[in-house]
Specification:
Elements: H1 13-25, E1 32-33, H2 34-41, H3 45-57, E2 61-65, E3 70-74, H4 76-90, E4 95-102, E5 106-112, E6 118-124, H5 149-169, E7 177-181, E8 184-188, E9 192-194, H6 204-220, E10 223-224, E11 233-236, E12 241-243, E13 250-251, H7 257-275, H8 286-289, H9 296-302, H10 307-320, E14 344-347, H11 358-363, H12 368-373, E15 379-383, E16 389-393
Antiparallel strand pairs: 1-3, 2-3, 4-5, 5-6, 6-8, 7-8, 9-11, 10-13, 11-12, 14-16, 15-16
Helix pairs in contact: 1-2, 1-3, 5-9, 5-10, 6-7
Length: 395
């Protein structure tokens, strides 16, 4: 998803007051009516339409109609601007550079703060792919309430930042956390490469042992990563590993802790056997090696990320299979390692001229002319609630 921060400097205080009003109104409304926006932003109703029109042109909000009224909702681009505005005021983000990474549920950019030092900006975007089973296992929402992807993205960012802070304070090899707001995290930029991009290594046994020791060390501190694989491990030039991506991390007291622990171990064993031809009969076992000695999981709860928020996010992750939490260990083919960890290609609504109606996007229908011109005979095309086009390769 594009992140064009240039327009930030041209936006007025009133524009941000309208964006904030829509964000606040979205807590109780799927679409926020204009009178409520005027009330929350404390702007005159007569002048509110100008700001709303400008925000729609900039693709920061969207207009929708219900059976009772026309209203407006925040889209991820508008949520990005609200977070960037706050981070900019704090001095954490002064400029936004190139995109350096993209995942199923996040976008990653190089940024610089007021101190002109480069850092990493990670934007959580839950809902980009995991939208098909949203009505299943969602007991953390009222029956008449629709889930908010932005709220879940915010919880995901809060959780990752909280775990990163605690892990960094206790000497674990993780990036230094710098700041967090809404669904965005600012962290240290490291000179390292993803493990999945490394074809050869001098001593695979040494790195294998270090990674297994890291899994055990986390468990002894009361934590399980939950997605410990080649996509979430960086390797420095000296061969030392760096651990990233913590939204799916759980406590060793979790009901499925042993499953997550064993899956993390199996992910590393499978990858090393496939990529480096290395296999060891020695590997940690939950019952023997996960004896809890420290309570970092308790410290995370005390940091402000509440147990209720943790429960909501874990239920969402499990129901939507974010981070493959209900699947077998990762087994990506070698030829897929250089691409997204998915067989789905994402084409963002901002990147092409799609004349399809909003109703078509909600139901997953595609205009026949668009389908014939897209050369996607081998793909099934769907639209998610964010307006993104997803081309999924047919089996």
């Amino acid at each position: 998803m594009k992140l064009d921060a240039k327009a930030l400097r041209y936006m007025s205080t009133e524009d941000f007051r309208v964006l904030t009003a829509i964000e606040i109104g979205s807590r109780n409304h799927d679409i926020v009516p204009a009178p409520l926006i005027a009330q929350l932003s404390r702007l005159r109703s007569g002048g509110i339409n100008k700001f709303i029109t400008d925000l729609i042109k900039r693709k920061l909000i969207a207009s929708e109609s219900s059976s009772k009224y026309v209203g407006y909702k925040l889209v991820y681009a508008g949520y990005d601007y609200l977070a960037l505005k706050t981070l900019s005021k704090r001095g954490s983000v002064a400029s936004v550079g190139n995109q350096i990474g993209v995942g199923k549920e996040s976008d990653i950019f190089v940024i610089a703060g007021d101190n002109e030092e480069q850092a990493v900006l990670k934007l959580h975007r839950l809902g980009r792919l995991s939208f098909r089973n949203v009505k299943n296992k969602r007991d953390y929402f009222r029956p008449d309430q629709s889930p908010s992807w932005m709220y879940m993205s915010r919880l995901s960012a809060m959780k990752e930042y909280a775990f990163m802070q605690v892990l960094h304070q206790h000497g674990f090899p993780v990036p230094k956390p710098i700041d967090q707001n809404r669904h965005c995290i600012v962290m240290e930029l490291l000179d390292a490469h993803p493990l999945r991009q490394i074809e050869k290594i001098g001593e695979p046994g040494k790195l294998y042992s270090e990674l297994m020791d890291l899994i055990v060390r986390l468990a002894k501190h009361g934590l399980i990563h939950g997605d410990f694989n080649e996509f979430n491990i960086l390797i420095r030039d000296d061969g030392s590993p760096i651990l990233i991506d913590f939204p799916q991390m759980v406590s060793t007291s979790h009901a499925n802790a042993e499953f997550y622990f064993n899956r993390d171990v199996d992910c590393i064993r499978t990858f090393f056997k496939r990529r480096f031809g290395y296999e060891s009969v020695l590997y940690p076992k939950f019952a023997l090696d996960a004896n809890k000695e420290f309570d970092l999981d308790v410290q995370v709860a005390a940091s402000g990320f509440t147990k209720k928020e943790q429960t909501q996010l874990e239920a969402f992750m499990e129901s939507e299979q974010v981070g493959d939490s209900n699947t077998t260990p990762h087994s990506h083919d070698e030829e897929e390692d250089e691409d997204l960890p998915s067989d789905e290609e994402i084409v963002y609504a901002d990147d092409n001229d799609n004349d399809g109606s909003e109703d078509d996007r909600e139901t997953g229908r595609v205009n026949e002319d668009d389908a014939s011109d897209s050369d996607d005979d081998d793909c099934d095309i769907e639209y998610d609630r964010l307006g993104n086009t997803i081309r999924r390769k047919r089996a």
